[in-house]
Structures are given as structure tokens and as C-alpha cells.
Amino acid sequence: MILRFANGALGTLSISDSASAPWSWEMTAGENKMYPKTDESCYWIAGTEGSLGVPKLDLWHYGGQPHWGRPIQIERAIAPEADPLVLQLTHFCKVARREVAPLLDARGGMKTLEATLAVKQAAARGGIVNLVNEEPKLCLQ
Q1: What pTM does this model have?
Q2: What's the rounded Cα separation, in Å, for the pair 105 and 101?
Q3: Which of 15, 58, 73, 110 has the fewest C-beta atoms under 10 angstroms from its C-beta?
Q4: Per residue in 48-64, pLDDT tens?
Q5: Residue 129, SS3 per DSSP
């Protein structure tokens, strides 16, 4: 997928759930002990001022001054180990008790669904689907 965001930024996604590789979320995050953990990242977010590998949280940058001739720096954030299903259920219970707001509300969920359906539509017709300045639409049949 090639994505053009409203601010002009470009994004590319290459996704496969059938490739034999050590880069799946399950094998890189180590959350589900059923999958053997690898010391890899499965997502890479790259920009002109830095790049981030996920889930290792390796942040690569030039110290605020991009210069290809200088040594690149790396910082690694350490995320606490926790069972994501327990965290999700705990958050759900807090939302149900109105103790916290949901991390993603219905409007955010609708936008995610809209983007997913747009990718499907673009692939089916081999063209571009423009979502800029459109209200979310959903038709259930």
C-alpha cells in the first residue's frame, strides 16, 4: 500500500501473514509465549529526523541535525513486560466503570474501518481511494 496523508507525507506498507519470517508481531513482541521470540522488529517507522523500530523501540537519529556523514545514534526505550490481554481487560473494566476514557472511541474505530475498507476497494479496482475531507460512511447490508 502507498498512503498519502493529508499533510503530504507518504507512507508505504508491505504486509504478509503468510511469509516465513522472524518479523511477525507474535515473534517479535514476546507477548504470547506460544511463539518463539526473536530479537527482531516487525515495524519500522522512518522519517527525515529519525527512525523507530517496533517493538524493540530502537530510535535512530542524528541528534536533531540530520547529516549523513555523521555517526547515527541509537536510543532504546524499555517497555515493561506485561500480558497485553490482561492490560486490555483491565482497561475495558475501567472504561465500563467510567473510571477512564477508552483509548480508542467509536469515531476512531470508524476511521480505522473506513481506511481498511478503502484499501480493499483500491485493491479491487486497482486505483486510488481518496478519504481526505470525507465524513466516515458505513453501509451495512
Answers
A1: 0.68
A2: 8
A3: 15
A4: 888 999 999 999 998 87
A5: coil
